[in-house]
Amino acid sequence: MNLEAVRHACDLVASNVATAIAAQEDVLVLGGDCTVELGTVAGANAAGARIGLVYIDFDVDLNTPDTSDGALDWTGVAHLLNITGCEPSLVRLGPTRPMLVPQQLLYFGVENITPPEAATIRDNAIKVISREEALNDIEAASRAAEWAARFDCVLIHFDVDVLSFVDFPIAENVRRCDGLKLEQAAFVLKQLAALPQWRGLTITEVNPAHAPDETAAFARLNEVLADALG
Questions:
Q1: Quick one: which of 34, 114, 145, 196 has the most CB atoms within 10 Å?
Q2: Which letter does DSSP use for residue 59 in this model?
Q3: Dihedrals φ, ψ of 171, to 5°?
Q4: Euclidean distance between CA atoms 37 and 164, whole angstroms
Q5: CA distances (Å), origin 177, targets 57, 128, 171, 204
């Protein structure tokens, strides 16, 4: 769905991210659905950075257009990895093919994984810190930061549907999952953004209409992000 709009948005994001990272500036990208991460990664690649991507999300987005419900939103990571069956024009964003190899990807907080996606994770030995681990292991954030520290450029993808919708109803997807509390997510973001290699945060899937009090919700979210990003 909306392939031309997705491609145009990703091209714009890639151009701005490449310029910023080449100038040694940090990047904040506000999406949009999860495909906007294609632009962030493509831009970082264009700047010549050796990327590690921490993908904080309830979903793993490893579907291809043939195995999704038709929405490109569920296919972002598959396109980053150039999984067979992906849209060629999105795979070709930026200067490298694939945009990432599996060893450059860490999932954090994920839970919703289809059988084909699970097979891709297994076959490619992709690192996963599950929702259960994120909720119950006090060292989960430190493990993510330790993994990320090996790269020259650390990018964070933060889909707000990783949050408990009951605790903080701001995501586009209204699944009432037992996700992270906002403060728990903030703790993870703060550890990752404190790394000297951190260069970019992409935030996706925010739907202000789902917040009972939009002003209060965004005041809280903005305070958490400002603290996390220092």
A1: 34
A2: B
A3: -80, 155
A4: 22
A5: 12, 18, 11, 17
Task: Identify the bridge partners of residue 107 per DSSP, sorted by sequence position.
Answer: 55, 128
- Please report which residue ranges of the chain form alpha helices under DSSP H: 3-22, 36-46, 76-81, 88-91, 115-123, 131-136, 140-148, 182-193, 214-229
Mean pLDDT by 10 residues, the chain (230 residues): 91 97 94 95 94 97 86 93 95 94 98 94 97 94 97 97 90 81 94 96 94 94 91
Q: What angle do CA 105, 118, 163 make, to 5 degrees?
A: 65
* 126 touches 102 (CB < 8 A): yes
Residue pointed to by tokens 């860490």: 106
Question: What domains can you pick out in the chain, each with its CATH number?
Answer: 3-229 (3.40.800.10)
Q: What is the pTM of this model?
A: 0.96
The whole-angstrom separation of Cα 147 and Cα 31 is 25
CA angle 59, 210, 167 (to 5 degrees): 65
Measured between alpha carbons, how far is 21 from 221 in angstroms, rounded to an integer?
Answer: 25
Tokens found for residue 118: 């699970």
SS3 73: helix
**What tokens does 143 get?**
């493990």
CB neighbour list of residue 86: distance below 8 Å, 6 or more residues apart? 64, 65, 75, 78, 79
